[in-house]
Amino acid sequence: MKELTKRELNILEILWELKRGFVNDVIDKIQDPKPPYTTVSSIIRILESKGYVTHKVYGNTYEYRPVISKLKYKKFVLKDLISNYFDGSLENVVSFMVNEKELSNEEVNELSELIDHYKNQTHE
């Protein structure tokens, strides 16, 4: 999988929402000011070349649909982030967030409860 630009991700998020659609369907979901048709079409073709989108032809018109789920993309981004910035260690991520005061005491407790719950499930 390849990383996406912000614009590519915005278009892909719309396609995830639509499940399938034409370029004009995507443009309709974009807030004003709307980009030109050619811009959206180009971004969708880039997404297709990166393996995120496929199309079905209806005459001269293309209907696009995502081939990568939102969950699969989230997993890819998270693994990539942990690998590139935290030496592949989830412990380093949590430690960083705690040290940078990104997690409140309540969130730390919730995380601890989640870990305990997970541990209990794997030992049953």
Task: Please provide a written account of the structure.
- By secondary structure, the chain is mainly α.
- The protein has two domains: 6-66, Orthogonal Bundle (Arc Repressor Mutant, subunit A), CATH 1.10.10; 86-124, no CATH class.
- It contains six helices and two strands, in the order αααββααα.
- The protein has helices spanning 6-18, 23-29, 37-49, 70-85, 90-99, 105-122; strands at 53-58, 61-66.
- The longest helix is centred in the last third of the chain and has 18 residues, at 105-122.
- Using the 3D structure, state the CATH architecture of the largest domain: Orthogonal Bundle
First-to-last CA distance: 35 Å
Tally of individual domains: 2
What share of residues is helical?
55-70%
Name the structural class.
mainly alpha
Question: What would the CATH topology of the largest domain be?
Answer: Arc Repressor Mutant, subunit A
What overall geometry do the principal axes of the alpha carbons give?
elongated
Largest sheet, described in full?
2 strands, antiparallel
Q: Give the topology string: H per helix, E per strand.
A: HHHEEHHH
User: Which parts are unreliable, with pLDDT below 50 for 5 consecutive residues or more?
Assistant: none
What's the CATH first level of the largest domain?
A: Mainly Alpha
Kindly report the name of the CATH homologous superfamily of the largest domain: Winged helix-like DNA-binding domain superfamily/Winged helix DNA-binding domain
